Amino acid sequence: MRRHSLSAIVITKNEADRIEGCLRSIAEIADEIIVLDSGSTDETVEICQRYTDDVTITDWPGFGKQKQRALDKARCDWVLSIDADEALDSDMQQALVTMLDQEDIEHTAYRLPWGVTLYGKTLKYGRSARSVLRLFKREGAKFTLDEVHETVVPVSGSKGELKGLLLHYTHRDYGHGLDKAAQYAWLGSQKYHRKGKKSHGLVLALLRAIWTFFLIYVIRRGFLDGSVGFIVAMTYAQVNFNKYVGLWLLENKR
Q: Is residue 216 part of a domain?
């Protein structure tokens, strides 16, 4: 028995082709796995039920609210929030086990280095070269209730970084990537509109897109990821452009 227990929370919809890799990577580590599914029509639920009895079918209120629902069901000392298209690599699995077995854990939350994997390549630069806060003490933590790009608000304290990679198989193929980018852009438009953020016009939307490409491809050295790095930088630039165009249209809706 480890000194500290772990809840893993996952939200799903139609992830039958990816969810097993996610669950397999945490099955031997998590003391409980909590899945909230928002109406899958494939075998996602059946696959999840092979790994946990705690599978709940729900409506879809948005990313932040759905993850908060999952967090509300957690009962262990620590929580790992992992997406259906992610998996812990072996180094991160071992680092997590070691952390949970410490008598006094130094931090109250941990960032996990992302290993974004696209078109057969695990990216090391650009926007992929970052860590995401996914591991945190349960008591006192919460999610922001944003429609998209929700974040964890952990209890106060220092944050660490776990070794290894949180592998992220973000796109099944290029078509799926386009669909996902469009969805996130529109959700971002609605989120900004709800919060009262202004677009400041279409010219600025274009300039934001150009800056996004330059930031990811040049400043963050996305060019070192080769042709896939270029595709990723262009995709994020397009998402940012579409997001602010959507916001502009919402502002000028008649």
A: yes
Residue appearing with tokens 């650009």 = 126
Based on the fold, state whether residues 37 and 159 are members of the same structural domain.
Answer: yes
For residues 29 and 248, what is the distance between their CA atoms, to the nearest angstrom?
Answer: 46
Range(s) of the domain holding residue 224: 174-251
Single-letter amino acid code for the residue at 116: V
The answer to the question of residue 1 being in a domain is no
Q: Measured between alpha carbons, how far is 46 from 55 in angstroms, rounded to an integer?
A: 9
Which residues lie closer than 8 Å to 50 by C-beta, 6 or more apart? 23
Helix or strand run (H / E) with residue 191: helix 174-194
Residues 143 and 184 in one domain: no
Written as six digits, the tokens of 51 are: 């790994």
Please work out, in degrees rounded to the nearest 5, the angle formed at the alpha carbon of residue 95 by the alpha carbons of 89 and 98: 140
Per-residue pLDDT of the chain (254 residues; tens, 9 = 90+): 789 999 999 999 999 999 999 999 999 999 999 999 999 999 999 999 999 999 999 999 999 999 999 999 999 999 999 999 999 999 999 999 999 999 999 999 999 999 999 998 889 898 877 899 999 999 999 999 988 889 999 999 999 999 999 999 988 899 999 999 999 999 999 999 999 999 999 999 999 999 999 999 999 999 999 999 999 999 999 999 999 999 999 999 86
Residue by residue, DSSP assigns 47-63 as HHHTT-S-EEE-----H
